Amino acid sequence: MFGKAKKISIGPLEYSKRLWLRLSVFAVMVFLYAPIITLIVYSFNDSRRNIVWRGFTLDYYVKALNNEDLLLAFGNSITIAFFNTIFATVLGAMVAVLLWRFRFPFKAGYEGAMALPIVIPEICMGVAMMAFFTQVGWPTSWGWPLKLSPIIIAHVSFSFPFVAMIVRARLVNFNRELEESAKDLGATEWQAMRDIIVPFMKPGLIAGALMAFTLSLDDFVITFFTSGPETVTFPVKVYSMVRFSVTPEVNAASTVLIAITVVVTTLAMYIQTKSKSSLTGD
Questions:
Q1: DSSP state string for 37-83
Q2: pTM for this one?
């Protein structure tokens, strides 16, 4: 009656039933998200220190919103991210079309050169951009928003390869017969590009633009090396506040930046997923 229960064997593809895999996923999730969750929770802490929880409050969000220096830095970051998104998207799309469509000498080398800003450590990129602007004597006395131009140029230089990579991945699935059919019907090269290729590229362009916006908005290292003495962005301002003390006001400002980054990244991933679904018909 109470016979020995038969042991159920785990299939080779049933990864979710393996204990070691569950533990490793749990450990990864804790190491990745525990610091972020802690920062968000303590942004509501009713205490000047982050050591002990003293109760819930929104006062530090109000203080962060009334901090003029913080708002000015946030405005600079939004302005830089806006112009970077425009220039990086246009440049990245042109590079993607060039690499997808044309064959030319040393194409492999050109592709490698385009990928360099992605693989080079950010601090090296920041030092290189600082040395470049110093050597060319880039003026720092311009008024706003021209004084943000060194940061915008630096951000475009490292974010447009990401746009090119996303747009090119989209173009791989393009049916060239559509373009040939348009030309057979009398369309010019420009009309085929405007009415056939660009609409097909649209999901990749939007996803790439959102990626460029996110990369620019929360960049610290390259901005730190290329910003002038009177130019402060949101991440640099948060860093300067952290140097004195990690207050809930700093946590609140960081939480706002995390929220914006998550929303934009989620939107970019949604557009990419939707684009893939439209191609596969799922």
A1: HHHHHHTTBSSSSSSS---B--HHHHHHHH-HHHHHHHHHHHHHHHH
A2: 0.76
User: Per-residue pLDDT tens for 154-166?
Assistant: 999 989 999 999 9
Q: Judge whether 201 and 166 are in contact, CB under 8 Å.
A: no
Q: Contact 50/251 with Cβ under 8 angstroms?
A: yes
Q: Give per-residue pLDDT as tens, 61-105.
A: 888 888 888 888 888 898 999 999 999 999 999 999 999 888 888
For residue 100, report the phi and psi dihedrals to the nearest 5 degrees: -80, -35
| 113, two tokens | 């050169």
HSE-up of residue 239 (Cα within 13 Å, Cβ side): 11
Nearest in space to 45 (alpha carbons), one of 258, 246, 260, 238: 246
